[in-house]
Design a protein that fits this description.
heterodimer; A: mainly beta; 14-stranded antiparallel beta barrel; 6% helix; 60% strand; elongated; B: mainly beta; six-stranded antiparallel β-barrel; five-stranded antiparallel β-sheet; 4 helices; 41% strand
Chain lengths: 380, 417
Amino acid sequence: MRRLLLGTLLGALFPCVVSAQASQFGTRGLGLPGRGASVRAMAMGGGFSLFDAESSLNPAALTALENLAAGFTVLQEWRSPSNPVGDASLKDSRFPLVRVAGPIKGMGLWIGGSASLYTDQDFRIATTDTLMLRGEPVGIWDTTTSLGGLNDLQLGAALKLNDVWSVGMGVHVITGGTRVEIRRSFSDSSFVSFRQRAELSHTGWGVSAGILGQLTPRLAVAAMARTDAKAHTDRDSTSLGTIDLPHRFGAGIRWQARPKLALAGHVLYRTWSAANSDLLARGGTGAQNTWEVAVGGELVGDPERPYRRPIRFGVRYGQLPFPLVTGEQGREFGVSIGTGTRFAALRAGVDLALERVWRSEGPDFSETAWILTAGVSVTP
Amino acid sequence: MIDVPTPVRAARVVAASALLCLVALACQEDLTAPGSCPALCPGGAPEVVDTVLTPVPGGDSTFIGYIEAGAGSALLAAEQLGGVDARAVLRFASRGDSVLVRDTLRAFTVDSVLISVGLLARDSTVSGLSLVLYRLPSTVDSSVTLADVNAAFIPANLVGTIPIPDSIQTGSVQLPLADTLLARVAIPPGDSGILAIAIGLQGPAQTGVRLGSQTGGSLAPAFTTFVTADIADTALQAQSIVRVASFNTFVTSTAGFPPPDLLSVGGAPSSRSLIRFALPSRIKDSVQILRATLEFVPESPLPGLPNDPATLEVRGILSDIGAKSPLCNLSNLCGGAIITRRSQAELVTGSTDTLRVEVPDIVRGWQGEDGAPEAFFVLLIPEGGSFTTATFGSTRAGVHVPRLRITYARRLEFEVP
């Protein structure tokens, strides 16, 4: 219990290094939503997220843990955004999920803590233009940089009601912010380059609940619901009011199709449009509700030892909540594969996932990315 | 102790290596994407604004008397340059009637004399120049006038002529005198060993030269006497006595003070102008100044020596106490900003073009609660030693009023989700 609490505390402190998902589709609104999925779940397109104890989506999934486990994820992404101005080849890295969870022996209770991306606003955009200054055309180069995003700190507990049903609840603290900066330089050196900065911070909270049912040895279902309250927003320590955060609802199914093959999928719905009026009132492009559908599978070589280099695969389709252009809606499609292994008497494990993602909004904005994710989990 | 089988150990090594590689990769970032505004420009872009300010009415004044003629780095000599005559006046330090050799003052006889003058600037397009040197009374002082000097320009007072080679733009020129010519610089006993001379200019055209003053370092004027000392040791007989100018000035035919309703800089005694502005609160409080330019329109073609431009310098002030306001210095704090570069513009002889002086550091120093006084002090360099003067309009004249053009960026209200 002490180790679990210590681990949870460490996990709660870790958001300071949680970085972001740099993408041109994360430039508006609150940015690009995080997924809260473990590497194993990401390798299966996210389809197993509602059943995965190492993901933070469904607190009821904690009951799948047999021992205390801690894990973190590191991710490297190579992106190729395209927009009316041009193309680029970019790369960035981040640590999207840290998690500590395990059972409390003798109580039939599981608790866990995690730090994951709620939304993500790491980006750097370079633009060029010409201004008429003092009657002369002067070229300008702007670089807008945003570093940060919102973190989701979850403390969850789960209870096994019987051999079939498990339930879980989580409380969430949503915190974090972005440091935004714009730098401008001029083609005419008579005008000095300058930069302007602001620090935006947000705080909010939410609660989530989930249920997991092992209906038959081969069929399981899961569902979750979560509601997040308004987030308070400050700019440079000055309160700017609140913004509505979404509810989310999800349901999934897992089917052990063959002894060596498990399949799962889920549907998630998020009511991001709650923030629409707040964003429009502040000059933004608004927000829209989103659907996400994910399906994946895991093929193991030896059903007795499923941890030995299974082959995972999945596909995912999702909508993006914060449009670049008012009225449009971005979407993303991903195909993923991955594997993993456990060692040290099953006390440690490494998982890998590789995902190819296509994102687009309207005819003008698109992006492709290779996302390589690695996760380490340890059972002390 | 857990027994780890070999395959598991190998798998652990592979996994650890893979993770290490990934962590190494994770150190690589390249985030900059091409931006397409307004879609990818949350909050838009900073608005850049250009505005023009005029001085506070009546808040611009000219003060006279900063650097007297001769107190600057240069002396002037000219012949009808822009209708102006100028003569340099030198009075050398007293030369005694003995020379110190081996701790003993000894009498001497003069063998020769060398008068050196430093040429600081000339009009390089005019050739065939000569300096003409005439004796002046040894009592000459700052009350001397051009008429006094011109009265001394008679053959009886001629010391000599120094041709200025056309190849020399700057450097020392000398007049050696020996034998019978020594009588021209002979110092009567009643003059206490003091030699005073005036220097005029001769040339084929109306032109002028600037000569080094007593503060001119290696180009300062010097009066050297080569003597034979009264001593038996022949190796010590040859001595020289060097005297620098103890007083120098120049006199010109320039008339009076500048017009009171105009702003002027330059001249001797030199004038400076103080120009006060009132910075709008929107600029004083919360904008970023990208460029600030002070603009002057000359009232008339700028007088001066061709090809010897002077410099208009604009300085901020630390406190506004009128004519004696302390000036901000380079690399020092001036209100809320450090002066990182000089604010200067070249004054080209004959020009009537608008003069623009970049003054961003000074104007930035006006911003904030601890801002410096919103004023400029304008002066001319070399002060007190230039043919150039500049006269500009003022708020009293109502025409050609100096303008301060400020380009600034407003604070960007970043998109706040």
